[in-house]
From TrEMBL:
Residues 1-43, 242-263 are annotated as: Disordered. This is DMSO/TMAO reductase YedYZ, molybdopterin-dependent catalytic subunit. InterPro entries: OxRdtase_Mopterin-bd_dom, OxRdtase_Mopterin-bd_sf. PANTHER family: BLL0505 PROTEIN (PTHR43032:SF2), PROTEIN-METHIONINE-SULFOXIDE REDUCTASE (PTHR43032). Residues 332-463 form the Oxidoreductase molybdopterin-binding domain. Residues 253-263 have a biased composition (Polar residues). SUPFAM superfamilies: Oxidoreductase molybdopterin-binding domain. Residues 1-10 have a biased composition (Basic and acidic residues). Keywords: Membrane, Transmembrane, Transmembrane helix. The chain crosses the membrane at residues 64-91, 129-149, 170-192, 204-223, 269-289.
């Protein structure tokens, strides 16, 4: 009868000339007791806790659930990246360093273009989508990270150079995602704590993240597609917690070999994530939509009730916050208009005596909040360009009397000057501008970021 056991030393024929491997003295290189082998053995043995394969035991974790969250993020992050690029382009950074908050862009600025002024609500829509969607995606991002967390604790961390590259790309992907979401959310809540300019860090961080994201999608798209096809969504929605079972084992390493009893079904995980996203939308979107929905915007950095009266709409920075004093905007204030023929100076009374024009325009800020259309009145920038002797000016430098904060000087492009809705506003909603809204004069331009609608204007320099 055959046996599966191997012959031992006692079964060897007498006189056999077989010899075992030569013995090495203990502690010699390559011997079982050498420091090198002891280090290798320790490296092969996973440390206690999350690095052990039996630590992660959720029966719902697997390629299908990960792929569902991944598909949502694929669509959402693509929109986030594009609206982010458009938001940066809206500042017209190609006009010069005055508008450029990210110097040294190099090839990363290849896509920049002159931001249009039509439709007038374009920037409000773009930034509202960018900020609101970014907040809404937070539960999905956290759910996706939960679904793949065993991969982050793989032991040993790397075995081959190819695996090392994959781990570095995973670090850039996860780290980049957390960095972009964290900086963006802190900025819209006006609690930005990172060193350096938000625009610079967020811009370059976005490119690092999207490069890792694109590489990850290229490597995983086929796997994601196969996983989504393996289980029908309707089947998941019909399966309760009691009947939830792990997915079949596969090479992903996400399916546990020692599942615990399910405490939540896959449909429950989807419902919990979706509910979190909807709640965040409900308490965020109102700051961009405006109107009555503003009352629901619990996360609105400027509050849900902007005030009453003609100037009852949000402001980004008050006059006091940027060092504007009563003397700066009092009777001694003058507007200086610079052109090839020299400088012309106007009092506010002289400006009011000129032909006035009206425009119904919103204000939208990079932080995501926006005001509804307000009725502005004042002088067209095109008419002021003509007064300066430059009816076809290529740009205008707008300077404020403010002493603190960014964007005290901005450049506006030719299409922004020529648009008949672009005004040096003196009134809003039939009343004088308030001090916090830019009295005695401010710029208002359609589809323009709020910070480029300069308040407390002192100088307009038209350029070829």
């Amino acid at each position: 009868m055959a046996h599966d056991e191997q012959d031992g030393p006692a079964d060897r024929p007498t006189g056999s000339t077989r010899a075992g491997p030569p013995r090495r003295p203990p502690g010699s290189p390559g011997s079982p007791g050498s420091p090198g082998q002891r280090t290798a053995a320790l490296f092969r043995t996973a440390p206690p806790g999350p690095f052990r394969t039996g630590f992660w035991r959720s029966p719902i974790r697997g390629p299908w659930l990960t792929s569902v969250f991944g598909l949502v993020l694929l669509a959402g992050i693509t929109i986030e990246f594009l609206t982010g690029l458009f938001s940066y382009a809206a500042y017209n950074p190609r006009l010069g360093p005055v508008n450029d908050q990210t110097p040294g862009k190099g090839i990363l600025g290849f896509y920049l273009f002159t931001w249009p002024t039509h439709p007038y609500w374009l920037y409000r829509l773009n930034q509202g989508v960018h900020v609101t969607l970014g907040v809404v995606l937070v539960p999905v991002l956290l759910a996706k990270l939960w679904s793949v967390v065993p991969k982050l604790f793989t032991w040993p961390p790397t075995r081959t150079p190819a695996q090392a590259i994959e781990r570095v790309s995973l670090l850039l992907l996860v780290g980049g995602a957390l960095f972009e979401f964290a900086t963006g959310i802190l900025n819209i809540q006006l609690h930005y704590i990172f060193p350096g300019s938000f625009y610079t860090l967020h811009f370059y961080g976005a490119w690092v993240f999207i490069a890792a994201f694109a590489a990850h999608v290229a490597l995983r798209l086929g796997i994601m597609w196969r996983a989504l096809r393996a289980i029908r969504l309707i089947t998941v929605l019909r399966t309760d917690t009691a009947r939830t079972e792990p997915e079949p084992p596969d090479s992903s390493g996400l399916v546990t070999s020692t599942p615990s009893r399910p405490t939540m079904s896959r449909r429950g995980a989807l419902a919990l994530t979706g509910a979190g996203a909807l709640v965040l939308m409900a308490v965020t979107a109102g700051q961009s939509i405006g109107g009555a929905s503003r009352r629901t915007a619990l996360l609105a950095p400027h509050g849900r009730n902007p005030g009453r009266g003609p100037s009852g709409f949000p402001v980004n920075k008050t006059a006091a916050q940027v060092g504007v004093t009563a003397a700066d905007i009092g009777p001694a204030w003058r507007l200086r208009v610079h052109g090839p023929a020299g400088t012309r100076t106007f009092t506010r009374a002289e400006l009011l005596a000129m032909p006035q024009h009206q425009a119904a325009l919103p204000i939208a800020c990079v932080e995501g909040w926006s005001a509804d259309d307000q009725q502005w009145s004042g002088l067209r920038l095109a008419d002021l360009a003509a007064l300066a002797g430059m009816p076809h000016a290529a740009s205008v430098e707008v300077q404020s009397v403010q002493r603190g904060g960014a964007f005290s000087t901005v450049l506006l492009a030719a299409n922004q000057i020529r648009n008949p809705l672009s005004l040096l506003a003196l009134h809003v909603n039939g009343a004088d501008l308030s001090a916090d809204h830019g009295f005695p004069a401010r710029v208002i331009v359609p589809a323009c970021p709020g910070v480029n609608n300069t308040k407390w204007v002192s100088d307009l320099t038209f350029r070829k």
